[in-house]
Amino acid sequence: MTISPAGAVASDGKEGADVAAAPTAWPASLKPFGEGYPTAGDPCRRVGESPATSNYLDDSADLVGCPSDAAAAALKGKALATVDGIRLVSVPRRPAAAMSNTSVPVRGKNSLEEKCLARVADITRAPVIGVNRIDESRDPIEIFVNVEGAQAPWLCQARRDGTLGRVEYSGSESAA
Q: Residue ranges of region Disordered (predicted)?
């Protein structure tokens, strides 16, 4: 694994230059997930918790990896480091106050949390242990659910109107 600080100086003396060639595939060391960031099809992706990323995680921001300096700069986040050729960027999340009023409670009886627990249990056919965390700063809300035997939580996306969106395993496919 290669780690370089953000703003490293390349061998040609140019600050901010790519310190490693962009890889043709995402390194497993970053545990990338999603199909693009901030929207599907974009070149950057969210990265998960791993030894390579643990020093950069922040509960108030998304940790995102980008294959180029230009893609990283477009996110307008804080450049952190380059790991295995991928630029890591911390992108602050929108404050919860910016979200619209909720018509369905996030937690408690008849809540989005209960709906997600039921949906994950239905999909996995495994005992659901409980909620790992809930990120209300995103739209849709992201509810991470622990399932017995899974190496990582399941992600359930829920809208404040009560509808559920995508439900997927947040770890690698081989670990599910």
A: 1-20
Taking the C-alpha atoms of residue 42 and residue 91, their distance in angstroms, rounded to an integer, is 15
Q: Which pTM does this prediction carry?
A: 0.46
Alpha-carbon span 114 to 12, nearest angstrom: 55
Residue owning tokens 């703003």: 7
Q: 166: Cβ–Cβ under 8 A, 6 or more apart, which residues?
A: 155, 156, 157
Beta 3-5 vs 78-83: how paired, if at all?
antiparallel
Per the listing, tokens 């659901």 go with 128
* Alpha helices in 4-80, H assignment, sequence order: 69-74
Length of the chain: 176
Under 8 Å CB-to-CB from 148, ≥6 apart: which residues? 126, 127, 128, 129
pLDDT in tens, the chain (176 residues): 555 555 544 434 444 444 444 445 899 999 999 889 988 889 999 999 999 998 898 878 899 999 999 999 999 899 999 999 999 999 988 654 444 454 789 998 999 999 999 999 999 999 999 999 999 887 889 999 999 999 999 999 999 888 898 999 998 865 44
* Helix (H) / strand (E) containing 46: strand 44-47
